[in-house]
Automatic annotation (TrEMBL):
Coiled coil: none
SUPFAM superfamilies membership: Nucleotide-diphospho-sugar transferases (SSF53448)
Domain Glycosyltransferase 2-like intervals: 198-388
Name of the protein: Glycosyltransferase 2-like domain-containing protein
TM annotation in the entry: 12-31, 37-60, 378-399, 419-438, 450-470
Annotated Pfam families: Glyco_trans_2_3
InterPro entries referenced in this protein's UniProt entry, alphabetically: Glyco_trans_2-like, Nucleotide-diphossugar_trans
Organism encoding this protein: Candidatus Buchananbacteria bacterium RIFCSPLOWO2_01_FULL_39_33
Gene3D superfamilies assigned: Spore Coat Polysaccharide Biosynthesis Protein SpsA, Chain A (3.90.550.10)
Keywords per UniProt: Membrane, Transmembrane, Transmembrane helix
Transferase recorded as keyword: no
Length: 496
């Protein structure tokens, strides 16, 4: 089969599978309502079992987080056989028009970390199309922070014809400039650890010490990415309840995967070896979701001998809240759609895992596992909330009088309600953990705000549809249609 045809088929497949599911269920709701109800009940039972399975991993990750956050990782790396002073930490901060206050806040957070600053190389990357504004910000940053790190590198990226406008292209350019600096300093690539951060990322004070420990104790550290726990705590108290629920749901999804490395891909801000970055040709400059693609690049480059190492330490980021209720909700939808555009990995994975040009040195089991994780994750994201909470009610209204007279039909609503009540256990667990992970309450906020923080979870089912299923379905359908409907990189608006 020609590569072009195969690529189009794999672009169509994810959305086609989702739409086929909806079409079949809706058709059965009219033609065979009882069949539809059987399917929906089986699907809901599967999801309840899956929920409790995920809750087990959530609790395991939570316990590991509480344990690791109390350890003095700087003291631990000081007694390792390898000398941590020989390793340098590079921190990438790509920007696209963010104000000085946002950038300065991130630099101040770096200074609060307990890792030696004379082993940090900080890279601030701007876009040529924001040149005047960026250079003004960069000048102020250099004046205030330039002498407080080993090196502060400023880069300005000019978009090239073969690049997609967005973070990936900017980071790709930054990494070529980092290579020039590292070569000038004669630093071994395997002794340079790179953290690719969004501009508003605020690391835990022990982040780089923890990262160094993971890196120095790993048997093959250049063949691994390092994924921390992402919190959206920077402006969590100011955000509205809907935004808070959506943001925290992302945290808990990541928390469940941190204890299951076989399902883990890098997400948002994360870290890796510069040696790996160089070997794979740096972050992809032609896609939107470069943050998760980079570990897949490593997987293909090293014949499957690559992994994502979980880090039970936090990075804190902003929610999309900018002070305007409706605009913030609009931004939240766009952010979720951009994350759901990770479906663009499916054609790439098929091409690199199973096509004639694929790397067959990767064990078949691992190739199938990664492709299954990608397919099942994207399918569930788009299907589950809509099917369980909306479409699943359709056959109950369309059944004939004869069907309604059966004992099964009369008990079906009660069975669904009971299953939903069981599912509330997970929601309650999330709400309690979420409250315990909140930053200190700012001045001007009363203790009553904690009650709001707990009560806001009642909107979770609605947010699963509006900011879960629908943007996922939107992204997958755009990939299926292609052309001008394909997504570009949308820059999240930042405001302090």
């Amino acid at each position: 089969m020609p590569e072009k045809t195969l690529k189009k088929i794999t672009e169509v497949f994810p959305a086609a599978l989702v739409w086929l599911t909806f079409i079949v269920i809706i058709t059965l709701s009219f033609a065979r309502p009882l069949w539809a109800i059987y399917f929906i009940l089986v699907f809901v039972v599967y999801w309840i079992v899956r929920l409790f399975y995920m809750m087990v991993w959530l609790v395991i990750s939570w316990v590991r987080y509480l344990r690791d956050i109390k350890i003095d990782w700087l003291e631990k790396i000081k007694i390792l056989p390898k000398d941590y002073r020989e390793y340098y930490q590079v921190i990438e901060y790509p920007t696209c028009g963010e104000p000085y206050e946002v950038v300065a806040r991130s630099f101040e957070a770096l200074l609060k970390t307990n890792y030696p600053k004379d082993q940090m190389i900080v890279v601030l990357g701007g876009e040529e199309r924001k040149g005047e504004q960026f250079l003004k910000v960069a000048k102020e940053i250099k004046e205030k922070f330039g002498s407080q790190f080993f090196k502060l590198l400023i880069t300005v990226h000019e978009l090239q014809p073969d690049e997609l406008p967005g973070k990936g292209a900017n980071v790709h350019y930054m990494e070529w400039e980092i290579k020039k600096l590292i070569d000038e300093l004669n630093l071994p690539y395997e002794k340079v650890i790179v953290s690719s951060f969004d501009i508003e990322t605020l690391p835990h004070r022990q982040y780089f010490s923890y990262l160094a420990y993971k890196y120095l104790t790993h048997p093959n550290p250049t063949h691994a990415s390092y994924q921390p726990l992402i919190l959206y705590n920077n402006n969590i108290w100011e955000s509205n309840p809907i935004i808070r629920v959506v943001a925290s749901a992302t945290t808990f999804w990541l928390l469940t995967d941190l204890s299951r490395p076989e399902k883990l891909l890098t997400f948002s801000s994360h870290s890796m070896s510069f040696k790996m970055l160089f070997d794979v040709g740096f972050h992809d400059k032609t896609i939107v979701t470069e943050d998760s693609r980079i570990c897949l690049q490593g997987l293909v480059q090293y014949d499957g001998k690559y992994e994502v190492v979980p880090m039970f330490v936090t990075l804190s980021m902003d929610t999309v809240y900018i002070g305007k209720f409706w605009q913030s909700l609009k931004n939240q939808y766009k952010q979720m759609r951009r994350w759901a555009w990770g479906v663009e990995h499916f054609p790439w994975m098929w091409q690199n895992f199973f096509s004639q040009k694929a790397n067959k040195n990767i064990p078949l089991k691992k190739r199938i596992q990664y492709l299954w994780n990608q397919t099942e994750g994207m399918y569930s994201w788009a299907v589950a909330p809509l099917l369980i909470l909306v479409i699943g009610r359709l056959p109950l209204f369309l059944a004939s009088d004869e069907d309604k007279a059966t004992a099964f039909f009369q008990n079906a609503p009660r069975m669904l309600e009971n299953l939903m009540v069981i599912g509330m256990v997970g929601l309650i667990t999330n709400s309690v953990m979420y409250t315990l992970m909140l930053p200190n309450r700012p001045q001007g906020y009363s203790w009553l705000n904690y009650i709001i923080m707990l009560a806001q979870w009642v909107v979770f089912p609605v947010t699963m549809i509006i900011f879960g299923s629908i943007p996922a379905l939107d992204a997958q359908t755009r990939l299926m249609i292609g052309g001008r409907y394909k997504l570009g990189f949308w820059v999240t608006e930042k405001k302090t």
